[in-house]
């Protein structure tokens, strides 16, 4: 039987792929979505079982299906690492995320405006677009993905169009919010309630978040957290013009004479390879895997795989001996202590410190309770660090720390910062290692630039100083290290630009070398930016799919 004819094939069903399906079917296209994983129903995420989901890694690929990481210090050494940020299921990693959905802003699009002098050994181009041009796409993304939040809470918050606001008000604040707003206010900073893809009330026939505590790394059994499957992909399927095929592992993009022809795929490990044809193919399987697919497909561009970036990270935790544990308040106006937190701090996105003129582009903080995400094993694993406490706690030290977490107010800062983009940070095909399907694995070379290490340490020190002044005692201080064996925010590898000599994609995210081949994950990003990237990825998918010429 001949295969059905499709106007486009979409590889991957997560943030980019699901959004592409929504936009293209709305335009009347017939699309086929190919997904390596299976459908997962919210009922499959019950009961809340930390051992099964977190410790036994039930929702992520096995280490045998991971990637090869080259040692940052000794490149003759390498090892397989698991990809904890990958969800091989319909909806991809949006089935496992925390749904933190800030926008990238002009400081990310036009880095030269805040970072005129860059280290000599990096490549940090301005993006070929401007933030102001993307306002319509960000707004569509926020409504398609049901974002809760409130604009204009802080001068440091992402600027929006006058009169615009999110589909829903913010989720209920954490009990630490009044204390933290006051403490940072004394230092001239103003944190604000995060934009989240989490329902603060019933919206689009899905319930409000009950603050169960099982969020990042877990499937949402309540279905209040947005994912591709309960937003954009669901709407695409309802048109009757979208088909999703699970268990389809795309192993190559088929192209001839500079034009895409279709895709090659297998449906079982080491199975027979089959081809489906289409004149347009949209790839969205995260930056490392998309680069791997381009390399497997022999897309003739020397920049493929280069300029991989992971966000610069860092963590600090403090406890406040004079502050009772945060709670829901007498009328339940706050989140439970063990829930997901609510605040963002963006006042260090751009550094203007005359004592440190070499530091310019910084980043933002997500602020949590140290007991965020209730499971006890994860809570214990977060107790130690490079601060007052050792990395592993036992006996009386562990008991005392757990008592602190239970009885005292505490705070955890998670930094997301700009990263220097270097050609040496790259993805290649391993010449020997193959995955369980018999396909060559991605071999990843990565180490952070000294700027990344300095900006992480500097920003952490700034917030820790403010918290110590407010009565806090440091319990963990863990700035970015040189090595990074993988992180959920991965960008670059197939950078977009106007010059085919320095980029893989054009400004509409189409391959310079294979017409009809588009990329919709964060591989297109010329630089990493300094916020969670998914909303910007979604906005870009809307932008691209609205402008692609019709079939």
Question: Short description, anyone?
Answer:
By secondary structure, the chain is an alpha/beta fold. The protein has helices at residues 15-26, 50-55, 106-109, 135-144, 177-186, 232-238, 287-296, 376-381, 395-407, 450-469, 534-547, and strands at residues 8-11, 31-34, 67-70, 78-81, 192-193, 242-245, 249-256, 259-266, 274-277, 281-283, 306-310, 312-324, 343-345, 363-368, 408-417, 426-434, 440-445, 473-479, 490-493, 517-519. The chain has a single domain, classed as FAD/NAD(P)-binding domain (3-Layer(bba) Sandwich).
What does this protein structure show overall?
The radius of gyration is 23 Å and the shape is globular. It has eleven helices and 20 strands. The protein is 20% helix and 20% strand. The protein is of the alpha/beta class and 551 residues long. The protein has helices spanning 15-26, 50-55, 106-109, 135-144, 177-186, 232-238, 287-296, 376-381, 395-407, 450-469, 534-547, and strands at 8-11, 31-34, 67-70, 78-81, 192-193, 242-245, 249-256, 259-266, 274-277, 281-283, 306-310, 312-324, 343-345, 363-368, 408-417, 426-434, 440-445, 473-479, 490-493, 517-519. The model has no long low-confidence stretch (mean pLDDT 92). The chain has one domain (8-547): FAD/NAD(P)-binding domain, CATH 3.50.50. The strands form five sheets. It has a six-stranded antiparallel beta sheet.
């Amino acid at each position: 039987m001949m295969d059905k004819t499709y106007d486009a094939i979409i590889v991957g069903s997560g943030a980019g792929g699901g959004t592409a399906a929504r936009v293209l079917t709305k335009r009347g296209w017939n699309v086929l979505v190919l997904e390596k994983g299976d459908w997962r129903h919210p009922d499959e995420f019950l009961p809340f079982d930390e051992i099964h989901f977190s410790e036994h890694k039930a929702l992520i690929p096995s280490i045998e299906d991971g990637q090869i990481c080259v040692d940052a210090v000794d490149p003759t050494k390498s090892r397989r690492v698991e990809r904890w940020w990958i969800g091989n299921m319909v909806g991809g990693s949006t089935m496992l995320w925390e749904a933190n959905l800030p926008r990238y802003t002009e400081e990310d699009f036009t880095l030269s405006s805040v970072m005129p002098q860059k280290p000599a050994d990096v490549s940090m181009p301005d993006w070929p677009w401007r933030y102001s041009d993307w306002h319509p796409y960000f707004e569509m993304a926020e409504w398609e993905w049901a974002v809760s939040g409130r604009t204009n809470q802080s001068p440091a918050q992402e600027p929006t169009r006058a009169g615009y606001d999110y589909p829903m008000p913010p989720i209920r604040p954490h009990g630490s919010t009044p204390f933290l707003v006051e403490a940072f206010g004394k230092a001239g900073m103003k944190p604000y309630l995060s934009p989240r893809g989490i329902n603060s009330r019933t919206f689009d026939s899905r319930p409000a978040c009950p603050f169960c505590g099982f969020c990042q790394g877990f499937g949402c059994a309540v279905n209040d957290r947005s994912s591709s499957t309960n937003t954009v992909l669901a709407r695409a399927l309802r048109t009757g013009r979208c088909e999703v095929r699970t268990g389809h592992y795309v192993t190559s993009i088929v192209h001839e004479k500079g034009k895409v022809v279709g895709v090659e795929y297998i449906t079982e490990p080491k199975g027979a390879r089959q081809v489906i044809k289409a004149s347009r193919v949209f790839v969205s399987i995260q930056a490392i895997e998309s680069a791997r697919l381009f390399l497997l497909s022999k897309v003739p561009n020397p920049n493929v795989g280069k300029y991989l970036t992971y966000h610069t990270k860092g963590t600090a935790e403090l406890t406040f001996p004079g502050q009772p544990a945060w709670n829901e308040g007498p009328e339940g106006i706050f989140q439970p202590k063990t829930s997901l937190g609510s605040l963002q701090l963006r006042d260090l996105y751009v550094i203007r410190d005359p004592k440190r003129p070499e530091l310019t582009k910084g980043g933002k903080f997500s602020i949590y309770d140290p007991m965020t995400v209730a499971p006890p094993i994860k809570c214990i694993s977060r107790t130690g660090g490079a601060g007052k406490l050792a990395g592993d706690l036992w006996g009386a030290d562990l008991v005392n720390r757990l008592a602190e977490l239970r009885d005292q107010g505490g705070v955890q800062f998670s930094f997301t910062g700009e990263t220097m983009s270097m050609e040496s940070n790259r993805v290649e095909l391993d010449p020997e290692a193959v995955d369980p399907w018999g396909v060559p694995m991605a071999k990843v070379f990565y180490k952070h630039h000294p700027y990344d290490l300095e900006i992480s340490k500097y920003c952490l020190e700034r917030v820790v100083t403010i918290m110590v002044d407010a009565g806090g005692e440091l319990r963990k201080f863990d700035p970015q290290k040189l090595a990074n064996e993988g992180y959920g925010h991965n960008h670059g590898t197939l950078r977009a630009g106007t010059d085919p000599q320095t980029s893989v994609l054009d400004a509409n995210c189409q391959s310079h070398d294979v017409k009809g081949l588009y990329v919709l994950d964060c591989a297109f990003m010329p630089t990493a930016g300094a916020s969670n990237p998914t909303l910007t990825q979604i906005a870009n998918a809307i932008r691209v799919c609205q402008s692609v010429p019709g079939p």
